[in-house]
Structure formats: C-alpha cells, structure tokens
Amino acid sequence: MDYLGINKNQSVNTVKELNQLLANYQVYYQNLRNFHWNVSGEHFFDLHAQFEGLYTDARAKIDAIAERILTLRYRPMSNLASYLREAQIEEAGKVSDDREMVRIILENHRELIERMRSTLIVAEEVKDEGTIDMIAGYLSDLEKRSWMLDAWYAQKSERIMA
C-alpha cells in the first residue's frame, strides 16, 4: 500500500542522503562519547556535561533518521563497518586537549550541516515534506549548538564585535 503518496523509486536518492547522514551521525555520536569519557582539566565540568547533552541529542536523531528511512520503505544502514566506510566524519581517536575536542566537534558539525543541506535539496525534488520538516528542524538546532560551541572555542580577538 502506498500510504505516503511518494513513489518508492522516487525516494531512493533521499534514502541515500539519509543513510549518509545516519552514518555520519553514528561516527559523530561515538566521537562525543569518546570525549565525554576522556575530557579532563580546567573545563571538565562544562565540557563533560556539554558532550553528554550532545550525544543524548545525537542518539535520538540517529533513531529518528533510521525510522524515517524505514517509513520510506527502505532499510537503514545498521552496522559499524558500513558507517565507517560511508561517513565523511572520521573517528577522533585519542585526544587529550579539551580545545581540540571542541574543534573536532565543530568540524563534525560542519559535515553534518552539509549533509543535512544536501538531504533537504534531494527531498525537495520529490516533495518529501516529512523528511524536509525533520531535517530542517535538525539543521536549525545544530546551527545553534555550533554557534554556542564556537563562542566557547573562540579567542577573545575572534569574538563578535558590536
């Protein structure tokens, strides 16, 4: 039954984009867990809590993206090997410096934002309003979170001038 009014064949490119986003979110999620567990030093309390909030949010978005793919009648990517192969975001590995952790997270955000914008373009081509609505909300939220992290990361000379 065609309960969405979207031809499954028309959704294939949207699903490819959603799977790319899913793979990138999975690697990003693991980077956040890594940093949450391993942050130390002067900014421990701030960043430990910040990383936890980010990975909790990422976990919910991962589930929603996978369920959107299922709603479009496709199977989401669901194994680590596929995520690592398909994602543009790379595993962070061992990082000790808290500023470097935030820099990496901001880079991860840049990639996620790029993937979201690409998904929106493809979903618009087939008038997939459900995907557009979901991803547009994620984009706005991640842009705001990125701004906040960037404000923390910025040197005094880089801050916004009045």
Q: How is this structure best described in words?
A:
With 162 residues, this protein is an all-alpha fold. The protein has a single domain, classed as Ferritin, core subunit, four-helix bundle (Ferritin, Up-down Bundle), CATH 1.20.1260. It is built from 5 helices and no strands. Helix 1 (12-38) runs antiparallel to helix 2, helix 1 (12-38) crosses helix 3 and helix 4 (98-125) runs antiparallel to helix 5. It is elongated. The mean pLDDT is 94.
What is the secondary structure topology, with strand pairs?
Layout: H1 12-38, H2 44-71, H3 80-86, H4 98-125, H5 129-153
Provide key terms for this protein.
Ferritin; 162 residues; 71% helix; mainly alpha; 5 helices
For this structure, the CATH topology is Ferritin
Q: Report the structural category.
A: mainly alpha
- Helicity level, as a percent range? over 70%
- Strand percentage lies at under 5%
User: Per the principal axes of the C-alpha atoms, what is the gross shape?
Assistant: elongated
| N→C terminal distance | 57 Å
CATH H-level superfamily:
Ferritin, core subunit, four-helix bundle
- What gyration radius follows from the Cα positions, in whole Å? 17 Å
- String of helices and strands: HHHHH
Mean pLDDT: 94
**Highest-level CATH class:** Mainly Alpha
The count of DSSP E runs of length 2 or more, i.e. the number of strands, is 0
CATH architecture: Up-down Bundle
